[in-house]
């Protein structure tokens, strides 16, 4: 994996949302990830965010998205996904590093938040290694009967 370069496409067009939906559907039965199942939901939620499709050798291998809130003072990372056959190769780590750098490069951002399942070990490894701290337990925030953890990273400048 080390020598492969990922490329990023900002999702904007209908075919981008359709590709994202096909990635999301791979996680339809996941207990630790609440996947989108409808095109109109992806467009409504991720269409207002900064959303990327991620490619490796022209193959779609993942997606990521974040939004800026409070006049750009807060960032919320809503999406980090790697398709199953490409997992365990460090791809999510690379995607997350790119997203975090992009966020930190915005001078107004004071903190970054995200939400993940307490049993999502791979995601938690990435977030904790990047200096995020667990700040809140949430019982059932997405209505899927599963708990979540809120994590936050304070940006020190
Ligand atoms: C979470 C996810 C993005 C991780 O993708 P990935 O490309 O496999 O992640 P990486 O290969 O970069 O691995 C990240 C770290 O987790 C570790 N890891 C991977 N699977 C693990 C597991 N089951 N248990 C513990 N650690 C694990 C890796 O060893 C790596 O740690 P390291 O940097 O110390 O080597 C991927 O599993 C996924 O898309 N899941 C479904 C969607 C999802 O849950 N997204 C997160 C929502 S908040």
TrEMBL record:
Keywords: Acyltransferase, Transferase
Species in which this protein is naturally found: candidate division WWE3 bacterium RIFCSPHIGHO2_02_FULL_38_14
TM regions (residue ranges): none
UniProt-listed PROSITE patterns: GNAT
GO function term, MF aspect, one: acyltransferase activity, transferring groups other than amino-acyl groups
SUPFAM superfamilies for the chain: Acyl-CoA N-acyltransferases (Nat) (SSF55729)
Coiled coil: none
Protein name per its UniProtKB record: N-acetyltransferase domain-containing protein
Gene3D superfamilies to which the protein is assigned, alphabetical: 3.40.630.30
UniProt xrefs under InterPro entries: Acyl_CoA_acyltransferase, GNAT_dom, N-term/lysine_N-AcTrnsfr
Domain N-acetyltransferase as annotated: residue spans: 6-157
């Amino acid at each position: 994996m080390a020598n492969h370069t990922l490329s990023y496409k900002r999702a904007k067009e209908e075919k981008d949302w359709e590709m994202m939906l096909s990635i999301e559907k791979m996680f339809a039965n996941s207990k630790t990830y609440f996947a989108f199942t409808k095109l109109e939901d992806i467009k409504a939620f991720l269409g207002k965010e900064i959303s990327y499709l991620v490619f490796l050798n022209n193959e779609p291998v993942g997606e990521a998205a974040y939004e800026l809130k409070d006049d750009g003072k807060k960032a919320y990372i809503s999406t980090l996904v790697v398709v199953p056959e490409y997992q365990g190769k460090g791809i999510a780590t690379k995607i997350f590093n790119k997203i975090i750098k992009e966020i930190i490069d915005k001078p107004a951002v004071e903190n970054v938040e995200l939400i993940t399942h307490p049993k999502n070990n791979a995601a938690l490894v990435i977030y904790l290694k990047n200096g995020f701290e667990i700040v809140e337990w949430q019982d059932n925030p997405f209505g899927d009967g599963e708990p979540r953890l809120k994590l936050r990273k304070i940006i020190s400048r």
